[in-house]
Structures are given as C-alpha cells and as structure tokens.
Amino acid sequence: MGNGFRISARALRQLGAELITSDEIALNELIKNALDANASRVIIDLINPFLYPRNTCIARILNKINNSPSNDLITNKDSFFVDGVSDEIKEEFINGIIELVDENDSAECITSYVNNFYDKECHIRVEDDGCGMDSNTLQNSFLVIGTPGKWIEKQSNQDSKLLGEKGVGRLSMMRLGKAASVISGVSGQNHSSNINFDWSLFDDPSLYLEDISIPVHSNYRSKEINASGTQISINSLYSHWDAEKVKSFIFEYLRRLQNPFSKKRKFPIEVRLNNEPQPIPGIFSWFKEAANFSAHVSFSVSEENAVLNMKRELTWRGKSSAESRIWEEADLLRELGCDKDILVELGAFDLDLLWFNRSDLQGASIDKSVTEIKTELNLWCGGYAIYRDNFRIGMTGSLEDDWLKVDTGSLKSSGFSFNRYQTVGSISISQKKNPKLIDAANREKLIGCEHLSMLKQILTELVNKDLKSHIEFFKENEARKIADEATAEQSLDDARDRLKSAYTKMSSLKKVLPKDKESIVAEIEHVLKTQHENIRKYEKAVNMSREQRIEVLELAGLGMVVDKIIHELARLTSSTVENLKRLENNNNSKESASLIRIIREQLKVTNKRIRTVDSLSPSGRNRKEIFDISKTIRAVLDGFSGRFERHQVDVKFMIDGILGSQKECDVNMVVGLVALVLENLLSNSIYWLQQSTTSSDGQRIIEIDLDTQSKTLLIRDNGPGVDPSNKDDIFKAYYTGRAKGKGLGLFICREIAEYHKCAIYLDSEVDFDGRLRNFILELPKD
Fold first, then answer.
1. How far apart are CA 22 and CA 239, in angstroms?
2. Which ranges in the chain are annotated with CATH 3.30.565.10?
3. What are the percentages of helix, strand and coil residues in the chain, rounded to 5?
C-alpha cells in the first residue's frame, strides 16, 4: 500500500495564525467556542502592566542606559507602567535591568530580559462557565483538527444554535500569542484536565504533526466539584493590549458583536483590563431616535405549506405609525424571476435598519450634539451586518466590507443617498432556518453560493429599491430634478440605441427584398427618418428646458413614450424581415398578398404611435387650453391599437357608463400632459395583464369610464391588482413592482395631476380578492 498525505507541523500554524486574520476575529472564535459550550457568561481578562509596546520600551531603556546614570531607571520606574501596577512588579523589572547593566551585559541580553518579562506579565485569559471538557473530550475532540462534533450535533439537533462547526476555531490561540494553556472541568468530577501548548514547536519545517506530542494532564480539585467551565490562557502575546487597543476592540468590534436590534439585551461577555471591568454599551436609544427612519423587513416561509411572504414596515422620525408594504409569493417569484424552491431553501430572515441623512442630523429632537450623533454613526454605519443566532459574522456591515456591493454597483448613483455611509443595518439568520448559508473558514464572511446570491438579489432588487423610493420621497425637491432630467436623458440614450438597431435591420431588408416590393422599404425608411427627426427635436428640447418645471415633466414622460415607440420600431423591422423572407420563398399569391397586408397594417399602426410623439412634444405648446378630453382618449387608444391586438387586450371605453357614447367633455388642461398620463396607465395595464388575470378564461380587459358629471376618469383592468398597503407608495419616485422597472411613470403622473391642481390615486374600494384596481384621475372642475 502506498503512503498517503502527511501534514507538516507548519500547516497547523498556517491554519491558526494565518487563516485568522486579526486579533478581533481570534478572540471572537474563542468567544464562540465558549457560547457553543452553553456558557451563560464569558470573561475576557487582559493583563498588561506596561505603558509602551515591548520594542518601544526596550528602545527607551537602552537610551537611558547609554545617556544617564543607572539610578535614573529607579527614579523613573513609573514611566514604564500604567497606573495601578504594584511596586513589587515595578521594582522586580527595574532591578533586573540594573543587575544586567552592572554586569556589563550586552544590549541583546537586556532585550531578551525585557521580552521575557513581557511574556511573563502580559497575558489574555478567556474563561466561561459552560459545560466544560473531560480528558477524553480534550484528547479526542479538542485536539482533533476539523472534528465533526459540532457539525454532527447541528444535523441531529435542528434547534442547535452552535456558532461554529469546522473545528479550527481553537487554533486562533496561535494568532494571539506564542504559548497557551487550557484548563477545563466537568460538573460532578473531582478533577480538571489541562493542556499546555508551545506554538513555536510548530515552526520547525522538519517536523510533522505526529512528531509533536501534546499530553493531557489531570489535576485534583477538592472544591467546586459541581462547577464546570473552561479557562484558556494565552501568553507571550504578539500585540500590545493597552487601554487604546482594548477600547478600540470594544467599540469597533465587541459593541457590534451582538445584534443591536435583538430583543435579547443581556450581553454575555465581560472584558477586564488589568482587573478593571470595561463598559460595553449597546446601541443607544437616543441614537435610534436620531435616525430619519427605521425599517424592519421580514422574509418568511410558512412551516405548513412553505408559503413565501415578505413584509416591510418603515417608520419616519417623529411618526408613531409605520408605512407597510407586502410582497406575496407571486410578487416575489415574478420580480426575482426565480424558482420557489431556492427561496424556500434560503429560509426566513429579518432585516432591521436605521437610515440617517447626514446633512439633517441636527433635525433630531434629542439632547445630543451633531458631533455626538456623527461619532456614533461612524461607529455603526457600513450597511448590513450579518448576524447568525444573534452574533455577527466577521466584519460584515463595516465600511471595510461592502459584501452587498452597494457602493460599487448600480445602486450608487447621482442623488441616491442610500449608501453604507448613512445606513446601520442587521440581517438576522439562524442555523436552524438558514442552513444553506455557511460561514467561510476564516469566519469573516459567508461562502459564496446560489442561496447567498439569492439573498443579495432580494436585498438589492427589492428591499433597497423600495427603501430608495422612500428616501427620494423624503427629499422630494431634489428627487423631482433628478427623476425628470435623468429619465429624459436615459430615455434619449435608449431611443438612439434602438433606432440605430432599427437602421441596421433596415439594411437586411434591402438585401432580401424583391424589386417589386421596394415600396415597403420606402415606407419603413420614411417611418425611421420621421422618428429620427423626433429624437433630434426631443434632444434639443431637453437642452432648452432645464429650468422650466412643466417642460421637464413633459420631457420625462415623453422620454418614456419615445423609448416605447422605438422599441416597437425595432420589433416592427424584425418581424418585417421575417415576413419578407417568407415572401421571397413563397409562390402562393394569396399568402403573399396576406403577408404584404400584415406588413402594411403594422406600418400603419406604428405611424399612429409616432404621431402621438408630435402631440406630446414640448415644442412651446405647454399652455393649458380647453379641449374635449374624450377625443384625446380615443386618439391615444387608436395609437395603442396595435399593442392591444398583439397582446389580445379587449378595451372598453365608456362615457357616463355608456359604451360607444360620443358625448363631449371639455377640460382646461395641457393636452400633451393628459396624453402622457393615459400612455403610462395603459402601458402599465398591458404589462400587468400579461402577468395574470382574474378571468377564468384568461381574457384581458381594460375598462375606461369618463364621468362628465363628477369630472373623473376611471381606468381599471382585470390584472393582478395592487395590495392595499401599497396604494400610496406606487406613486413615489423609484417605487416599482417590475423586475426591470424604473419606478418613475406613476410618479410623473402624480406630478402632472398636481400641476393641474387635481389628483390621481388608486381607489380604496377592494375587489373580491382584496386587491385594488381602480385608478382615478380627477379632472379640473373649471
């Protein structure tokens, strides 16, 4: 039989000291091990009597020896130690140095002496009152690297809240110091077990793991026989744990180690520096009050039949009631474009967050200065920290870890202030509910997998977009400018790209088209040239209308219309190419005639749509005028006839409830803006009707009813409808229920209504399924 792998002793050093990348992570691992042992309390004792790091201390001592009498060391012995250190330790340290000086020992000897004294006096002790370990457990579990004990327990006990499972966390002792000892006792036994580690042995490149013996010893204990727990002592420390480093560890790490939004407030960790307890404050209540809004998002999977649901509750500063939004299972599957199984496997989770407008910190009515609020915000900000069973994973949620790519992806854009610098958040997961989300070996993040990708997608595409709409609503004046101008320019860019594509496909027509069909090419070329001129006019109008609110509104809405028409042009040229290819290969005169008729009908419908661009164009005719709104409605419906036919939508236009009525209804409004509202509402209806209908036979219906007495216009369809909790949110900038939606259409409609001093809203009357479907546009009464 051939030899298998052998593991060098240095590999253990790499696992421990090099895989654990910081002192904070190393201590975190020891804390996790204690909590996994069912400890109710963990005490971290840090002993360091020295004022300076060892190298600084050595340099100062050598400098005094070379430049001052030796009795200066005695006179200035206090200058090497922190307050509260006993005179015995000070005198022992200084007397030892003076002896070496008197014996004319070299600087190397003095350096070695100081290093040894540091190693003796400075140490870290982590003590817990958990279940403890007997000699058998120490030998067969603690000393077995990668032991599957915790993993097996997790699989057999679904209620387990073990924070670790890989069996390498204990090696974090290597990161903190050169030597360590473990003493552990089990309740009911009259002895404890202990192990001593000299990590320098593992630096020898010639040794293998089996060459280094680590015996387990037993010690008799006559007292506290019923007590259990473990004490880990780490000596010969690598870092200088002074007051500043301990404070930094507490404020930058321990304060955030436990979920700040958890209702379980008792913090099971105590830190002492030189026997003095160090405060570990949680998140302050006044800090929460200073936030512009707080939000809670709950993603749930019912245990009975795995029904998916997500709910968001958002509360503005100074408000007592929350604004809610609900995503039902169908909404989640549609907007995420995924299978249900992966969401069920991902499992339930909760998100809590605070959002701060850094330019509005003084707006909080609390007895704290802006500087105090900023200091606390700088500590807690960083986006979403991930907490498994109430304890933080690595440094997630810090400014150094943009695991969600909020500041590097599409969410970082002009005017979008929902970034990590202004956000404090926590994502709560658990071992029981989220077993597919696994810690990386270095404990600093989650392992990349399809379930983590799905969590990121939920947060970025649903939650963050939803929160963004609220932030933009909060900053409405800025939102108007950004929303309108950005939409206009973006739509213009999209229109150029699609028109270019249409021209490219036009070239394909010329190659396959017989000479006797060249009139068709001429018609299509005319359509494209006309639209090219419209785009040029539109671009010119954008540049001229920056400072005029009403024109910007027109441009923003017009941009959407142009974008849709260009999309139809691209579709038209593609279908024409296919039909002409069929013509070329078809000898049947009747079928050929039918194909030509289809092509001409498509051109006719597209021309109608293009003519609407001219009626909507901001070419100076943005004044209110009295006109018959029923004619405008018919003109817009005529322009949509091709889309209605293509998507099999039956449209019913009624006046005062009478189908086919020719009654007139004069209004004093801007014709183009009214058309923009109709364009948007009809486009929305067509989209949602393609998702689902309430009709048993799948029939798609849009109903329009113009009430000439009350001066209201009702538009409804039999699509999936809107959840009542979202009836107001859908009119906010950037709110969208579409997977790739911009969330600006209804926002612009609301702005147009306000400009006319009227209103557009979703009627509160629910249908049979509890959903809302009636959009009401109130028309001016005068």
1. 11
2. 9-48+122-257+266-278, 624-782
3. 50, 20, 35
pTM value surpassing 0.85:
no
Name 273's Cβ contacts closer than 8 Å, sequence gap at least 6: 46, 48, 241, 243, 246
N- to C-terminal Cα distance for the chain? 99
| Beta-bridge mates of residue 351 | 297, 427
Encoded amino acid at 410, one letter: S
According to CATH, what is the number of the domain 475-622? 1.20.1410
Nearest to 584 by CA among 510, 526, 531, 654: 510
9-48+122-257+266-278: what CATH class? alpha beta
Closest CA to 388 of 429, 351, 353, 352: 429
Annotation: CATH topology of 285-471: Ribosomal Protein S5; domain 2 (3.30.230)
* Burial class of residue 701, CB neighbours in 10 A (0-12, 13-18, 19+): middle
Query: Closest by alpha carbon to 455, among 345, 327, 325?
Result: 345
Tens digit of pLDDT for each residue in 295-332? 999 999 998 888 999 999 999 888 878 888 999 999 99
Place of tokens 């289809």: 598
Alpha helices in 409-512 (DSSP H): 450-457, 464-474, 476-512
Please state at what angle helix 549-584 crosses helix 745-755, rounded to 10 degrees: 140
Alpha carbons within 13 angstroms on the beta-carbon side of residue 539 total: 11
Q: For 544-570, how does the pLDDT look when each residue is reduced to its tens digit (9 = 90+)?
A: 544 444 454 555 555 555 555 555 555
Q: Please determine, for residue 232, whether its predicted confidence score (pLDDT) is greater than 70.
A: yes
Q: Name the fold adopted by 624-782.
A: Heat Shock Protein 90 (3.30.565)
| Amino acid residing at 474 | F
Which part of the chain is CATH 3.30.230? 285-471
Residue 648 has pLDDT above 70, yes or no: yes
